[in-house]
Structure formats: C-alpha cells, structure tokens
Amino acid sequence: MSVNTNVNNQDEFALDQDGHLVDYTIWNHQVAQTLAQSLDLELTPWHFEILEAVRQFYAQFGHSPATRPLIKFLMKTVGAEINNAVLQEKFNTGLVARHLSRLAGVPKPANCL
Fold first, then answer.
1. I need a surface site. Which of 29, 91, 93, 105 has the fewest CB within 10 A?
2. How would DSSP label each residue in 22-64?
3. Helix (H, G, I), strand (E, B), or coil: what is residue 12?
4. CA distances from 32 to 37, 45, 68 (A)
5. pTM of the predicted model, to two decimals?
6. How would you class 96 by CB atoms within 10 Å of its CB: exposed for 0-12, middle for 13-18, buried for 19 or more?
7. CA proximity to 72, closest of 48, 46, 53
8. For 83-109, how does the pLDDT look when each residue is reduced to its tens digit (9 = 90+)?
C-alpha cells in the first residue's frame, strides 16, 4: 500500500498491510502527522517527544516495544507522569503500543494482533 503525500516534495511512502512504514528511515514529523490523521489527531511538540522516544526504544533494543516496556521507558526518558491512561487520552487510542509504533514509523510490535 502506498500513500500519496507531500512528505519530501511529492515523494510517496509505502505502508505495510498494518499501516506501518515499510522503510522506517523516511520518518519525519510530516509523515507522522499524515499517519495521525487516521486517529483524528493533531500532533503537538509533546506528541513528537513521545514518538521520538519510541524511535529511540526501537534503535536501542532492535524491536518495537510492547505497552508495559514502552511505558517504563517513557517514564524514564520523557517523564514520570506518563502512564497508559495519559497515552490513551492524548493519542486517541486504546492500542497504545501499536499506534505509537505506527506513528513513530517503526514496525508493529510482535505481540500485537
């Protein structure tokens, strides 16, 4: 699946069957905002801080995080106030690990259906 968008002056980016970027290296804030439209979400600097931390987790550990390890990582790297309820509310989703990974441009976590 390809999405026609203005990522880098008329480039397209390919998504897998689950809506995740095929090539996570092309991710940028504009790509994230395009992906966030499916959640009816306008990303703020706070959202981008979270998404960049998700990408940091992926780079550090070599896989996308499940919800519990993600929240522990975010509490240490972003702020102690981060919890599942905050992420669900701010990202308009109950599928925290899956949607944050998708918006951050990394593969779907292995334990997600």
1. 29
2. S-GGG--HHHHHHHHGGGT----HHHHHHHHHHHHHHHHHSSP
3. strand
4. 9, 12, 22
5. 0.85
6. buried
7. 53
8. 999 999 999 988 899 999 999 999 988
For residue 94, the model assigns a pLDDT of: 87
In single-letter form, the type of residue at position 75 comes to: M
Q: Are 102 and 27 in contact (CB under 8 A)?
A: no
Task: Tell me how far apart the alpha carbons of residues 38 and 26 are, in angstroms, rounded to a whole number.
Answer: 19
- Report residue 46 as tokens: 């706070």
Which residues belong to the active site? Answer: 112
Residue 105 CB: number of other CB atoms within 10 A? 22
- In 3D, which of 48, 84, 79 has the Cα closest to residue 66? 84
